[in-house]
Amino acid sequence: MEEDLNLDPGQYMGFYSWYSWPNVVLCFFGGYLIDKVFGVRLGAIVFSVFVTVGQCIFGLGALLNRYWLMCLGRFVFGIGGESLCVAQNNYAVNWFKGRELNMVFGLQLSFSRVGSTVNMNTMKRIYALISQFVKGYVCLGISLFIASGFCVMSLICALLLAFFDKRSKRILNTETFGTGEVIRLKDVKDFNVMVWLLCTICVCYYVTIFPFIGLGLVFLEMKYQLEPSTALACNSVVFLLSAVVSPLFGLAIDKTGRNVLWVILGIVVTLGCHATFAFTFLNPFVPMVFMGLAYSVLASALWPMVALVVPEYQLGTAYGIMQSVQNLGLATISLAAGAIVDKKGYLILEVFFQGWLCVGVLNRSAYLRRKLALEESVTVDVDTAPLLT
């Protein structure tokens, strides 16, 4: 992209930001619309349409060598992308309960990372194949249009899932079950403080993964003198590993519980990985492997915790808020990461990532203290209830 479109690293990272910026606001409203207006079925279909249209605009922008049109495509793609994740999380919570959730979220992450790994290892080959017939930005545009076929598959899956969900509710006669309560926008201010702590932990962690992977290819080639193909394989290790082990970690978390401690473990291990990249010349595959394991642990343990602290009728809004905060962080940190690399280099970038992870550990500790305080207050209330009566 940088060569064919004559982009600098900051402009390239702008594609990530244009994906993330709309979701700073729209994820929240997407979750609210799922809870209040669309329902999870129609919501998933609508947001899948946005994803498909956005990818097509992105490919068209490359085909015409129009950077602004590509940014518009990423913006439209972003409108649907993260809200679609909110719908996906809602489906998971509706279909699976209790200790099944960690494995299900791990399995969702696994399939998502399979897509990322396939993308990393096939798009360059598709581009090379098409470059035998056309060159430059035209070749890039055709490659991106081929990639949009997977977005069409996503839309088909959303339609099928809506059919099966409706059929299931009709057969089991659960369509009318529920509390009858409806989310209101003003309810957000009354969300448990633990929801906001989870949001903070989420953003502190994810801003050290996705921007790093986005810039990782050049980093690995420059610092470790890797061949492009080897650097590409190393850079995809995080997603490849998470695709394999996320369901296994989810199952382990289901069996043992202790989601909070699993999340702390994931953050600390990732902190060690970034420190290794910053201050050593150890084989880069080693920290990448541990980062992939840590990422799988954290994602499998963190996202199900939202369902434990908010009622079911508020889940879409709560997940939307979490995605919004995450995307605010990704949008700003992606730009900051590109600027840091341009002006200060990769060592300062790694120190920057380590600082965010330290904040994540502190917030995780605050969450644990809050959780223990709430549990103690509940215990006191239960023990003294007969006396009060």
UniProtKB/TrEMBL annotation:
Principal subcellular localisation of the protein: membrane
Transmembrane spans: 15-35, 42-64, 142-164, 193-218, 230-253, 260-282, 288-310, 317-340, 346-363
Membrane topology summary: Multi-pass membrane protein
Keyword set includes Transport: yes
Localization in the cell: Lysosome membrane
Complexes and interactors: Homodimer. Interacts with lysosomal protein GLMP (via lumenal domain); the interaction starts while both proteins are still in the endoplasmic reticulum and is required for stabilization of MFSD1 in lysosomes but has no direct effect on its targeting to lysosomes or transporter activity.
Family in the record: Belongs to the major facilitator superfamily.
Name the record gives this protein: Lysosomal dipeptide transporter MFSD1
